[in-house]
Amino acid sequence: MTQQLVLYPLLLQMFLSIVLMFCWRKISWQRVISIVGSIINVGVSIWLFSYIWENGTQIVLAGNWKPPFGIIFVADTLSATLVLLTAISGLAVSSFSSASVVAARLKFGYFPIFHFLLLGLNGAFLTGDIFNLYVWFEIIIISSFVLITLGGEKAQLEGSVKYFTLNILASMIFLTAIAVLYGLTGSLNMADLALKVAAIENRGLVSITAILFLVAFGIKAAVFPLYFWLPDSYHTPPSAVAAIFGGLLTKVGVYALIRVFTLIFVGDQFIENIILIMAVLTLISGGLGALVKNNLRKVFSYLIICHIGYMIAGLGLFTEVAIAGTIFYLIHDIIVKTNLFMVSGLIFRMRGTNSIRNLGGLYADYPKLSLLIAIPLFSLVGIPPLSGFWPKISLIIAGFQAERWWVVGAIIFASLITLIVIAKVWASVVWKEKKELPVRLNFRYFDKLITIRKAQMIAPMIFLSLVSLYIGFGAEHIQQVSSRVAGELMDNQQYIEAVLGK
Amino acid sequence: MKTIILRTASTYLLPLLLMFSIFILLRGHYSPGGGFVGGLIASIAFVLHAFARGLDNTKELLKIHPGFLMPIGLALAFLAGVTPVLFFDLPFMTGIWYPGQLPVIGSLGSALFFDLGVYLVVVGVTLTIIFTITESA
Predict the structure, then answer these.
(1) Are B92 and A15 in contact (CB < 8 Å)?
(2) Which range of residues forms the domain containing residue B24?
(3) Which chain A residue lies closest to B74 (C-alpha atoms)?
(4) Fewer CB within 10 Å of terminal CB in chain A, N or C?
(5) Predicted TM-score of the model (pTM)
(6) For residue A306, which of A331, A322, A288, A330 has the smallest C-alpha distance?
(7) Burial (CB count <10 Å: 0-12, 13-18, 19+), residue B60
């Protein structure tokens, strides 16, 4: 029963999408199936996580073909953690979208595609084969293309063209990189690659391949020179879609970077410096971008970019403390960013606009909801003891230890900018006096929704805020998880032994 | 496109192409072929019929909406993959083989059902796309 546990989240998501496809026209069924399925998925993911926590890394050989020849699925602590986070965000977004996405979009297969997206995410986190990782990336981007264009508004199509072009480009570069790597080593299994790449004498060639991977995953993760597609596309789809994109899609790129650069391409000083420079520039440029934008969702999009910088900085510093900080930040960021985009969706439903200049008076109209909104906003800034505070300590300590003062400076600078941005958002959206906005006809305002729809929108925010609070107040537990992940990642022999059994 | 030659030929070509697609599907395990190519050939048969006889006639012939073949095919492929997990406690997608030989088909295994699923999905997707384009044109 537990032997195949690693694959259960994958199989469940696939099962859900197939069942949802059978109920193509029955929207109300789809809502129920999606929410119930997502709850079961959280249960399965907790089971997987606790099993991995107690028994260490587990593998499943797909089709029973032995590694390094067959495709294998590996669940170490990092993968299990990310699968659990995907399940939590998935549940929240599933409930949120059944209330906030309009029926016209739901009719064209929103939920089946949404679960295919979650399937792709789980697959990417669990696979131990680099070509299979590419395939999961394809599943993710194909599903995301559908989700981003569903509805076919003009702005949406404009955003999706940018999204589509750069992501296809990233996939091409990724595929080329895999081809070069296969040419060098004759293997696709990541653990096997780790051994074979280490044995290659021509290090220049290895560095170039590593750069190809860095560019490919860099586009996906939206780091400094490669991020321009993100703020131009993330504000166009429905906020439920933006929530899952902002929470998880860029993080797959970060995951892939972490995996590849702690397992396959290890200890290359040149690459580490490049990653650090990218991280610092990402932190600064993302923060500055957020400062000047007026659309709430564009502000959050730039903050995504800015905070990707923290994770990449931890990867570039490459010490155990830094990697622990990266993992902690990843855990915190997935939950908070998903929540933030849902917040922007809620505000949009309340006021009919996302322009910060025109918003206002939220506290006067909805005092309790404003307090709820405060939790993700201030967690993001990292006001102690909320969740964003703790990983930064690890990152700054690691920066001091490595004597990279400019990295420490950039981290503090980005925190400050985030604080300014969030303070600005809070002051003008929540505290400022309400502006009279023209009433939009044919728009489903929040007040006009029936109670169950309201609950479906608010409940996931409460849920994710509680998770955020837990990450902040129960930081010790999260730190334990992050330290253990960092330990596993820094010592890649563990992974190799678990996979190849030597 | 509604010439008498094409219309007459399509009557004979439809069953021929369908049989050929099943032949390609079945030989796919060790030789070139398989569900994907087979599915494409089967959809060509219907597309040709639609060109010669008009879309409405083809839809009548198909009885169900081709889009419905997608979940059926996916479900079949999924079941073929999950069977070893559920009943034999073997990893996902492990081939389960019927011990004897069957006439015509040869060895029967879960891989065939997976391929059949692929076949249905390909037919469903291709026909849905082409029918939608034809309708909107």
Answers:
(1) no
(2) 4-136
(3) A18
(4) N
(5) 0.94
(6) A288
(7) exposed
Domain span holding position A429: 2-500
| Nearest CB to B92; choose among A18, A22, A60 | A60
CA nearest A139: which of A128, A156, A125? A125
Cα separation values, A139 from A30, A87, A114, A134, A236, Å: 21, 17, 11, 9, 21
Alpha-carbon gap, residue A322 to A310, rounded angstroms: 10
**Side chain identity at residue B48, one-letter code:** L
Which of the two residues, A2 and A78, has the higher pLDDT score? A78
Contact A4 B89 (CB under 8 A): yes
Q: Which residue has the higher pLDDT, B46 or A268?
A: B46
- CB-side exposure of B121: number of CA atoms within 13 Å? 18
Q: In this structure, what token pair is assigned to residue A455?
A: 């609950």
**DSSP per residue, A325-343:** HHHHHHHHHHHHHHHHHHH
Question: Chain A contacts of B82, Cβ < 8 Å?
Answer: 11
Q: Are A128 and A279 in contact (CB under 8 A)?
A: no
Phi-psi region of A442 (alpha: psi -120 to 50; beta: other; left: phi over 0): left
Going by pLDDT thresholds of 50, 70 and 90, the confidence category of residue B53 is confident
Cα–Cα dist A404/B83, whole Å: 54
Tokens linked to B50? 């639609």
For residue range A175-185, list pLDDT tens digits in order: 999 999 999 99
Sequence-ordered alpha helix ranges (H) in A58-202: 77-100, 103-106, 110-126, 130-149, 154-185, 190-198
The end-to-end CA distance of chain B, in Å, is: 15
Q: Is A265 exposed, middle or buried (0-12, 13-18, 19+ CB in 10 A)?
A: buried
Q: Which amino acid is at A134?
A: Y
Token pair recorded at residue A142: 């194909």
With contact defined as beta carbons under 8 Å apart, do A85 and A29 qualify? no
3-class SS of residue B95: coil
From B94's Cα to the closest Cα of chain A, the distance in A is: 4
The pair of structure tokens assigned to B37 is 């190519």
Strand partners, A73: A60, A127
Q: What is the domain count for chain B?
A: 1
Is the CB of A7 less than 8 angstroms away from the CB of B74? no
Tell me how close the Cα of A34 comes to any Cα of chain B, in angstroms.
16
Give which of B69, B89, B93, B114 to mutate to test A binding, by max A Cβ within 10 Å.
Answer: B93
Total number of domains in chain A: 1
